[in-house]
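4.2 Preliminary Data

To establish feasibility before requesting continued support, the project team ran the inverse folding procedure on a target of 495 residues. The structure was first converted into the token representation described in Section 3, and no sequence information of any kind was made available to the design step. The complete token record follows.
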């Protein structure tokens, strides 16, 4: 065996012991995949930030100042930080679309009140209570609701509320300008204890929000920066197509900047299915909700926070029962929530699902990708669950890192050559690499990422390229670890 000591010059004659020190990566340890998130939003009118500027390690307070207090971008960051306070995350903003408009609602109280109690308005799940006494007029009820509105509510709801002092009619205007503002939930509270006879609130959307900017400039700005996960404020069709193209580019072997995109959606069962029919990406997950009190951008931020952290820790472990804490208490009512049958159809069509617990907790049920068919249009279940692309990314990253650190300056010999038969320094062969794969895949199996390694890893093929003596081509097969999602029992009662 030839041992090379690079730091001791050849022909050195001065007596003494000279020892070079170098690090040697253990073949039984993992490199550890980085975790870094990109949150993409739209610059609000009261924001101090600059479009297409990357703001690193963003906090909720910084986002409120940069994107504008109450903006969808700021509230998405706030939701993300609620569920992932320590995850590294950057923010980038795009300019509003030309001619964009805010959604506007009018709230008209009825009166006079026939009893005393509490009338409450709910905006994005945040309650605005007004104390009403018997005989209060429309003007007085409107004024009471306006008095209950605070600056803090403007920030958390993303809306501004004013009252016409002569009529008592309230006008609620979204802070942002864009089509996504139509997804702000505005309703009269039906919670226990709210509601006064004769003092109902008639809510009408007077103006539709309009305009969604293109995210392409933001993605171009960070095209060479690796973000493992991305969130965006709205599941709009044009930008979904952009994300599908960009995530596929990043997954390419020559780019290796794998990422996953998370979005929320407000819509009925039919609307969610209609959107699913236009999607087919291994790297996009959409969480729809019907008449949820939380906003889609908050859902995107919360889902991104929870999923990115959990899957970085274990890319093969399902996300079921993980809580979206930022959305707690603001899920859909039972009458509005998708039932078991509709959720089953949604899951089969590339839409992720959640459950609302009795106490109001919002918990993930199953997170899937929008990928349904392969490149030929044939049904393909390979990438259904989000764990599939995440495991593939993790195994690729770890094996690439192992090869790079273990054989940084290796020479390449043929199997059967003289150097392959002796312990020559810094020489590898296709068989050497094949054994390395067997060893590494065993580690991945021990971590619970892949299965059937005793059968599959020996089937790996490493062969020297016929035209390039510096290249080895390989075929590697893995089987992602499964998840216990369905237990089907037959319970037979014996009599």
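Position-by-position output of the design step:
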């Amino acid at each position: 065996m030839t041992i090379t000591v690079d730091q001791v010059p050849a022909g050195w004659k001065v007596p003494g012991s000279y020892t070079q020190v170098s690090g040697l990566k253990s073949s039984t340890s993992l490199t550890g995949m980085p975790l870094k998130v990109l949150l993409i939003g739209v610059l609000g009118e009261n924001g101090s930030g600059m479009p297409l500027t990357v703001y690193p390690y963003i906090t909720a307070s910084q986002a409120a100042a940069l994107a504008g207090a109450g903006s969808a971008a700021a509230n998405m960051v706030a939701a993300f930080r609620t569920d992932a306070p320590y995850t590294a995350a950057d923010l980038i903003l795009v300019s509003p679309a030309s001619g964009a408009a805010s959604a506007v609602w009018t709230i008209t109280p009825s009166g006079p009140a026939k009893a005393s109690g509490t009338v409450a308005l709910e905006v994005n799940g945040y309650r605005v209570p007004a104390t009403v006494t018997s005989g209060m007029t429309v003007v007085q009820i409107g004024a009471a609701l306006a008095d209950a509105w605070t600056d803090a509510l403007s920030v958390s709801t993303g809306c501004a509320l004013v009252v016409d002092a002569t009529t008592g009619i309230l006008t609620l205007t979204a802070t942002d300008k864009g089509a996504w503002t139509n997804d702000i939930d505005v309703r009269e509270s039906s919670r226990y204890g709210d509601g006064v006879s004769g003092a109902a609130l008639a809510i009408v959307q007077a103006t539709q929000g309009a305009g969604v900017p293109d995210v392409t400039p933001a993605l171009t700005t960070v095209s060479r920066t690796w973000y493992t996960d991305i969130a965006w404020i709205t599941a709009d069709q044009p930008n979904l197509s952009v994300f599908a193209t960009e995530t596929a580019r990043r997954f390419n072997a020559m780019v290796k900047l794998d990422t996953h995109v998370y979005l929320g959606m407000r819509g009925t069962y039919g609307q969610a299915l209609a959107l699913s029919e236009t999607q087919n990406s291994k790297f996009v997950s959409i969480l729809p909700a019907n008449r949820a009190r939380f906003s889609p951008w908050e859902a995107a931020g919360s889902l991104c926070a929870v999923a990115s952290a959990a899957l970085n820790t274990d890319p093969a472990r399902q996300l079921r029962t993980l809580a979206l804490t930022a959305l707690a208490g603001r899920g859909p009512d039972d009458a509005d929530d998708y039932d078991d049958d509709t959720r089953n159809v949604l899951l089969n069509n590339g839409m992720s699902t959640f459950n609302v617990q009795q106490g109001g907790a919002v918990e993930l049920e199953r997170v899937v990708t929008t990928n349904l068919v392969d490149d030929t249009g044939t049904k393909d279940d390979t990438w259904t669950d989000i764990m599939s692309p995440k495991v593939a990314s993790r195994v690729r990253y770890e094996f690439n890192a192992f090869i790079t650190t273990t054989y940084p300056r290796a020479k390449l010999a043929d199997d059967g050559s003289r150097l392959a038969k002796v312990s020559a320094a810094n020489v590898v062969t296709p068989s050497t690499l094949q054994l390395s794969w067997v060893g590494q895949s065993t580690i991945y199996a021990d971590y619970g990422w892949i299965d059937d390694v005793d059968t599959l890893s020996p089937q790996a093929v490493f062969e020297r390229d016929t035209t390039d003596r510096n290249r080895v081509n390989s075929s590697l097969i893995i089987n992602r670890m499964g998840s216990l999602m369905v237990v089907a029992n037959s319970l037979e009662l014996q009599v």
